[in-house]
Structures are given as C-alpha cells and as structure tokens.
Specification:
This protein is an alpha+beta fold. It has 19 helices and 13 strands.
Length: 363
Amino acid sequence: MNYYNILNTLSLNGFEAYIVGGYVRDKLLGRFTKEVDIITNASVKEIINIFTDNVFTVYEKYGAVKLKFNDDIVDITTFREDILYSNGKLENVKFVSKLEEDLIRRDFTINAICLDKFDNLVDPFNFIDDINLKLVRTIRDVKVVFSEDPSRIVRALRFMSILDFNLDKSIHDYILSNPKEIFKIPPTKLKKELDKLFESGCSSKFFDYIKHNNLKSYFGIDFDKVVIVKSSLGMWSQLSIDTRYKFSKKERKNISNIRYLINKGFIDSYDIYVYGLEVCLISSDILGIKRDIINSLYTNIKIKGIMDISITSEDICTILNIMPGKLVNNYLKMIEKEIVYGALCNNYKDIVNRLKEWGENNV
C-alpha cells in the first residue's frame, strides 16, 4: 500500500505526520521491511475520527492506534514522552507536541530517523551518521536505556547481527559489565527477539559475539557450532536450551523432528511423508541437501495420508482371513511405506497381490 497517502491525509487535516523507525532505516540500507510505524501530533481521538473505517485496535493509554487497510496493518502513535517503565514495561506516557521530543525518547539512533509525505528525510539530530558508520548506538545514556527495558540488550545484538553493524563501545562495555541484566528480560520477550533474529537468516554475528564474550549461559543457550538457516525452528533445533524458553506444542514437536533428521543425516520420501515438507526443507538446509531434491521427492509421493490408500483394514481382514488388531495395522503400515517409497502402486489389485505374497510368507 502507499503509506504516504496516510501522511498526506493527516496533513490535509492539519497535522504533522512522519514514517519512523525500521522502515526508514531499512530503506536507507536498501532493505525491505513491511512493518510501518507512523508518528503524528494528532491525538488518538483525532486519528480515529480521520480513519474511522480503518481502525483495527486502539491503545489510548499509549497514544497508539492500529489501522487496517485490506491485509496491511499500520501503527500510528501520537508524539509522546515515555515517563515510567516497570519491569521492562512502559507504564506511563506524556503526550508532547514536537517531533524532536518524540524521537529523543527512542532506543537507538538508527531507529529515530523519519520520512515525510514527500519522501524527504527528516533527521533533526543527524542520526543518519550512525547509519553511514554502521553503528548501533543508544540515543540517551546506555544505562538509562537498558535499565528502562533490558530486552533492548538483545535488540541491540539483533540489529548488530542482521544489519552487520558494530556495537557502540558504550553498549559493548555495558553488556560485558552487566551480563546478569539479561536474566531480567522476560522469557517471552527474549524468545520473540531471538525468533526475529533467527528468521532473518543473519544470526552468525550474534552467535560469534555471545560465544567470544562468554555470554551463552546468560542467554540460556549452548552450542558448539551452528549452521545458519533462515528459520527460527531450524536454529532452535541446533541449540541446547534452558528451561526459561517456552515453546508451543507444535514448536516442540517440530524441533524434535528436525533434531531427529539432523542426527539421521539424510532425508527420504517416508521422512517427508511423516514429518511434512516444511520440517524436511528446514532439515535439508541444515544438512546441506538441496531443496530441489526434497521438493522432487515430495512431488512424487503418491499419497498424502493413510486414508488415500486404496484398501481398508476391513479389506485386509477379509482377504487374509484374520481378525482386526495389531497384525492388520502392521500390514497397513507396510502397504503405506511401500506406496510412499514407490515400490507398490496404489491400486486395489496390486495391493491385494502384495498382501497375498506377505500372507504366504507369514510376514
């Protein structure tokens, strides 16, 4: 969508408005980012009145409104000053009238550069210098910034790694002098930041940094060496993880399956059939197997589930004159594997002939 139309709409209604943060930073670096944050001197009520049909969620306490345009979500926030943090969470804000007051409250200089409705750079503090220097630096005193919200420590390391920037000396010195501050990061926030980092496929610099500076235990992860892949599941599966990290049932299952395939060292058709294409593609990236090979194996699998087999357990009982039970299930599983591997055609006649062969041989 054209985000500048939102800026123009606010301008036509008499308000200042700018795109700020990651979108601007990444645009300056030639990167693409979909998430867009807009700041304005319009109040929440004024934003709602202007964009009534597009209001998705309102956080009036923080001066924030989420707008929805088809499938796009845009965050609009009133200029503000952050007054109070408690346990890493913003508790109180003060709304202000000037852009500069809003920018100076933010965490890192590279995230406090704006674009106006004409796509012109608005950078009153000349923070673009840090973009040019490839430097992650806090706007205010590093102790204040990280004491407000300790998750900014891992956020700084994420930017360092994803952007291939360097940490400002003050940040580096703070982390090494106060590594226990990492324990104060709520586990959900810590995992969310690391998920973003791992999904980028640019986590190498992060791993090198925490290994070289003996920070692995503070992050609750351990590793010897890792293969960098563009998948959080793929990265978590290669790490020893402490109990602070909580994963969904689906995540735990997928991580376990990826670990199994990594240890196995190869992937065949039946693995793809059992564990699914996504898990096998992630595992293949770690194992160095070309994705084309996995996709080809997947395409050639003739069934997607046991219900696709052209014979039922009742048929097996009748054909072999046996009672329902474990033996029938074993026969069905054998048929399933042979079809997946391409050793047996999925038609009733061929399956019956194979069953009779197995029956005669007392399989």
